[in-house]
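Practice problem 4.
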């Protein structure tokens, strides 16, 4: 029996969903645009206010305002609809996302602002891009023109847009935020987009997402090919959904 979700008196929640087995859930910008389109439709259908968002390689952060029951319905539709798109495009089947999304209630304005800043700083934490240069978060909506977000309330907590921008340059480590812990290095040998390009070239038409379902000898053969192409164990895990333990074992047998 599932543990009931903790409810917030403010109806504001930090929501995180991640790929099953930490695999990538976005292969390109087209996927990200599709996800945002579905997110916008979900928001209108279930009357869920979007206060913030950030799309990472294998997980998403959302800052949502609605009763938790409505958020649960909306997230189920969002994740299932996007998974259908991704699986159809990739010619794969099975779960794309971890079974249950994570949620954290937010009760006060101070924590609300800190969570939004944390969400926007995720690309910097992952050494992908500066938060103000990253195209796939709501930071640009707050300093430009809103598309998905309801920005009025949070911006009303600052005197000027400049104050909002300056707030993002202050990172506090005093509180712990809902995250996707994986116990790994934050640095990567190459960007995931480059890793995908190399992997697709090496595999010569074999879809990355099919490797997990192959028999053991074939699977290990392709893992060896990816390792020989200088992809890291972490990258192969994200690209294929194959567990890190299996990849480490294959690596030791080379």
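Answer key:
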């Amino acid at each position: 029996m599932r543990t009931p979700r903790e409810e917030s008196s403010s109806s504001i929640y930090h929501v995180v969903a991640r790929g099953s087995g930490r695999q990538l859930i976005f292969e390109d910008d087209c996927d990200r645009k599709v996800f945002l389109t579905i997110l916008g439709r979900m928001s209108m259908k279930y009357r869920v206010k979007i206060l913030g968002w950030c799309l990472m390689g294998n997980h998403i952060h959302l800052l949502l305002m609605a009763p938790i029951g409505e958020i649960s319905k909306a997230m189920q539709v969002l994740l299932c609809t996007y998974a259908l798109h991704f699986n159809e495009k990739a010619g794969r089947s099975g779960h794309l996302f971890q079974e249950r999304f994570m949620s954290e209630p937010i009760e006060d304005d101070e924590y609300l602002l800190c969570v939004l800043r944390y969400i926007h700083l995720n690309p910097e934490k992952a050494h992908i891009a500066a938060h103000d240069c990253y195209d796939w978060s709501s930071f640009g909506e707050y300093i430009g023109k809103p598309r998905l977000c309801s920005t009025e309330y949070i911006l009303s907590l600052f005197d000027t847009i400049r104050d909002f921008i300056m707030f993002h340059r202050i990172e506090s480590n005093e509180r712990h935020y809902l995250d996707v812990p994986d116990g790994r290095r934050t640095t990567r040998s190459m960007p995931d987009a480059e890793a995908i390009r190399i992997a697709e070239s090496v595999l010569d038409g074999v879809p990355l997402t099919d490797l997990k379902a192959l028999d053991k000898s074939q699977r290990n053969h392709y893992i060896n090919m990816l390792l020989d192409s200088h992809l890291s164990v972490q990258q192969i895990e994200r690209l294929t959904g194959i567990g890190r333990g299996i990849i480490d074992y294959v690596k030791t047998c080379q």
